[in-house]
Sequence to fold (460 residues):
Amino acid sequence: MIALLKRDLALAVRAGGGFGLGLAFFLIVITLVPFGVGPDTGLLGRIAPGIVWVAALLAALLSLDRIFALDHEDGSLPLLATSPLPLEGVALIKGLAHWITTGLPLTIVAPVLGFLLNLDTAAFPWLLASLALGTPALSMIGAFGAALTVGLRRGGLLMSLLVLPLYVPTLIFGALVVARGAEGFSTHMPLLMLAGITAGVFALMPFATAAALRINLR
Amino acid sequence: MSIWEYANPKKFIATTTPILPWLTGAAIATLVVGLIWGFFFTPEAANFGASVKIFFVHVPSAMMAINAWAMMLVASLIWVIRRHHVSALAARAAAPIGMVFTLIALFTGAVWGQPTWGTWWEWDPRLTSFLILFLFYLGYIALWEAIEDPDTAADLTAVLCMVGSVFAILSRYAVKFWGQGLHQDSTIAKVGERDPLHASYYLPALICMAAFVLIFVALVLIRTQTEIRARRIRALEARMRA
Fold:
């Protein structure tokens, strides 16, 4: 499993594998929002939690089709399926590798972008915490969407249609943590719910992802 | 003799064809009776005016929008567990109908909300979860359309339906934390409590609900038959080419 993780990470970092791409996309989306809504700092500060979360979600979505599509094209996916490692384990590792290459850098960069959007400094720890807890769920749900559409030649648009509604609960609680943190309210409940979603997704989604992969590899 | 005999497509068509005219007739009759009774022979509500009569379309279609998804979930489970093709086709047949019911519920809700709440749309938990349900239907139908091999499509959409159900329920409760509710709670379940549905509304409402259930069943049967026949034609064409 660790070998597979290392392989995926190396592939993502080296061959122009979209490692920085998601991050750059995140930056661009957040830069564009003030052009759209105007430079009013009060308004920007109020909508910042939502903007950061939606941008993170879109950045994760952008690189989802890489999770399985490249392996499917060069034929390494059937090899992985017949290897001694169960396909559920492969799915888990793929989701994890996607998180390390997109979700983790996003989380680290997010506070800097929080300054750009005039987010209340009291909310910065909550922004970090919510992204660190929530983005793994985005990657794992995305791996499921990628597994569903891996056999299709142009599945990218369809995949976003399938995956985005599944992101709703994560987005709600993630943005709620930051918004409550900015206003100085207790963030206990949404934070626990977010952690619960991530834990549940990591426990169950590998099975659904592996099932979808098996159907597509038949 | 077991219920699984009807999973045979031939037996399914042979059994449902004689039932269908009666079912369709009953659906039309209950709908006409329920709507005419509801529209013309019930009093106007004190705080709603005549707009309360949207109730007789809005509530049954909202109910069926959820029930259609539940039926798709059951049909998908049967397909995954017992591999009956009719079941997968029934799930496929139900999806567009459920989507139309969701649209009707959203549209009548907007028309009703305008005079009573003063707004067409409000980001209220109930309204929002219906919009999300609509997106789920869209994704489900799009996945069916996108995959060529019918068995692969049936398997993948069944997996999507199961995962989607979990997330639909999760979203339903997640939006409750996120917005203030403007929509009232279900009135049908509260009959007998304080501020219940007025007695003169109860019977026509029930008839309308029965009508929507009958319409749904009749449409699903028709569409499933169509899907079976379309698949037969495709199989015949493939055989002729070979």
Observations:
- Residues 2-217 of chain A form one domain.
- Chain A touches chain B at residues 144, 148-149, 151-152, 155, 158, 161-162, 164-166, 168-169, 172-173, 176, 189-190, 193, 197, 204-205, 208, 211-212, 215-216, 218 (CB under 8 Å).
- The mean pLDDT of chain A is 86.
